[in-house]
Specification:
alpha/beta; globular; five-stranded mixed beta sheet; seven-stranded mixed beta sheet
Length: 452
């Protein structure tokens, strides 16, 4: 069979790729692979399942629960909650594994199934491969009292909210915060958390109807949040995506604050409190050069990984580091979470404002973003980027022009015949010119349509 798992679980068109049948069989296979330790210990495996509010999540969740219970797994249904809440609950309940049904920031017609290992951690490639292999085997068929039970996880949201509030170094009285919940999984819990933390809140994008998730709201559509912050004279705006594992922000002037800037602010906060392990931040190669320069000025080391929050997590675990994340707003506080958590990130950012008495605009001044231009070059041989002499020579020439004031990154797509050309420079015109020149070189030398 073709590989099902992508960079973040199994994701695709609901009732297209993600059918009830696939969901059932995937769950049955996961029950065997992720529940084997419990079975070996003579226990019945347990699993936590949660979903975002898109309409297809209802039948997919039913199919997943049927697959798990029919394989002898006891299921705790947490209902609509963010991905990081599901991860927390797996650990808090000491469950054998978890399932999150969501397509994150994708539109409503998509959906996905993501498994979490014991402790709420993302699956390794090896475990994902094992689940796919198990799908080709006959499914287990326990009988009578050996089948699993499905029960509502009644206090799931309360446990998550209490957990988040316990992470606060400072309450938020005096701050007015606009929350954009993307009509997604955080529509209930994010307002509750910020209200209980003492903030005055204005809530937008928190009326999910099953089909409006990420539609004009959330971290991929910040215009409504910017307008609301200005309208209400708020100190801060927080935007989640559909499953609330990311957070972007808006300052009191309506200026967007991205994941790199949030990471810079929080790295300094953790360093000040002595909680930034080895004075090191983990981020991807796509992070803005301004982040690296700001960290260097503050005496903080930047450890770079491949693009993807799973690689950030791997880098953090390898070194035991406490903070990592991506420009897109996936920020991981290892002290409190096993994955990116948009509500947690927003809370910590607001708490830093309350703690320092500074506006978000003042806090972001620690980092100067360099203009960044990204061009996707399509229809090219992505495997030849590193070996083509002409392309590499063009990169070296560009790097000589930029010196210490910019950088070049050519990144092949993992799935398509596409090469992503990224250039940063002190001036946007310089970045644009060099990016276009490099893109032209890549297109000319690596085109798949070239005459042989």
């Amino acid at each position: 069979m073709s590989k099902l798992f992508g960079t973040d679980g199994v994701r695709g068109l609901a009732n297209g790729l993600i059918t009830a049948e696939l969901s059932l069989h995937l769950a049955q296979a996961a029950a065997v692979v992720l529940g084997h330790r419990a079975i070996a210990d003579g226990r019945r495996p347990t699993a936590v399942i949660a979903r975002d509010p898109r309409i297809s999540g209802e039948f997919i969740a039913a199919a997943v629960e049927a697959g798990l219970a029919s394989s002898g797994v006891d299921v705790f249904d947490a209902g609509v909650l963010p991905t990081p809440a599901a991860a927390f609950l797996v650990a808090d309940l000491d469950a054998d594994f978890g399932v999150m049904i969501s397509a994150s920031h994708n539109p409503a017609q998509d959906n996905g199934i993501k498994f979490l290992a014991r402790g709420g951690k993302k699956l390794s490639d090896a475990l994902e491969d094992a689940i796919e292999t198990e799908m080709e085997q006959p499914s287990p068929r326990p009988l009578a009292g050996d089948v699993g039970r499905i029960q509502r996880f009644a206090d799931a949201e309360d446990r998550y909210v209490v957990h988040l509030l316990q992470t606060l170094p400072r309450r938020l009285e005096g701050l007015t915060v606009v929350l954009d919940c993307a009509h997604g999984a955080a529509s209930g819990c994010s307002p509750e958390v910020f209200r209980n933390a003492g903030a005055d809140i204005v809530v937008i994008g928190a009326e999910p109807d099953g089909v409006n998730i990420n539609d004009g709201y959330g971290s991929t559509h910040l215009e409504e949040l910017q307008a609301a912050v200005l309208k209400h004279g708020a100190d801060l705006g927080i935007a989640h995506d559909g499953d609330a594992d990311r957070c972007l922000a808006v300052d009191h002037e309506g200026t967007v604050v991205d994941g790199d800037q949030i990471l810079a602010i929080m790295a300094l906060a953790l360093k000040d409190s002595g909680r930034l392990t080895d004075n090191t931040l983990v981020a991807t190669v796509m992070s803005n050069l301004g982040l690296k320069l700001a960290l260097k000025e503050a005496g903080i080391t930047l450890k770079e990984t491949k693009v993807g929050d799973r690689y950030v997590l791997e880098g953090m675990r390898e070194g035991g580091f406490s903070l990592g994340g991506e420009q897109s707003g996936h920020v991981i506080f290892a002290e409190y979470a096993t994955t990116g958590d948009g509500v947690l990130t927003g809370l910590q950012l607001a708490a830093r404002m309350a703690e320092t008495g500074k506006s978000l605009k003042e806090l972001t001044a620690v980092m100067t973003k360099l203009p960044q231009v990204l061009i996707n070059v399509k229809g090219v041989d992505r495997t030849a980027v590193a070996s083509d002499a002409g392309v590499q020579e063009a990169v070296r020439e560009a790097e000589l022009v930029l010196g210490d004031t910019g950088r070049v990154l050519l990144r092949p797509s993992g799935t398509e015949p596409v090469v992503r050309v990224m250039v940063e420079a002190a001036e946007i015109a310089t970045a644009q010119r060099i990016a276009e020149e490099l893109a032209a070189t890549v297109q000319e030398r690596l085109s798949l349509e070239a005459v042989i």
